[in-house]
Amino acid sequence: MASRAQLVDCPALPALPDGEYGVPNPHDSSVMTLWRIDRGKLSAWPPGERWAPRPPAGTRDMPHEEHRARRDAFYRETYWPWKAAVVEEIARAPRICAALFWSDSSVAAILAAEDAPPP
Fold first, then answer.
1. CA-based end-to-end distance of the chain
2. Does a cis peptide bond (omega within 30 degrees of 0) precede residue 119?
3. What is the pLDDT of residues 8-59, one digit of tens each?
4. pTM for the whole thing?
5. Of 45, 56, 70, 81, which is most buried with the most CB atoms under 10 A?
């Protein structure tokens, strides 16, 4: 989760209509990311899925300030631009993104996630 300092770098994102949306992953268009917007809050679908890039892991010998600087740079240079691209695509074409959510491949992904054994 982003710290208060990392949230400072969050770009202004447009408000989106509630619904379910499919958006090609901005870093790998062969992967469809699934989203649910409820009362303006964007959440990955299915619950517990993480589509966004992961922050870099630190090492035990890495100084705390260096780890924090790497995470801050990750949010500024990777995470927020990625998230903004997802939101901008939904804002640009909400009906197409809604249809992509319900496409056969997306439905298959949802059913597979529901049928998967618990972690």
1. 21
2. no
3. 666 677 789 999 999 999 999 889 999 999 998 899 999 999 999 998 887 7
4. 0.76
5. 45
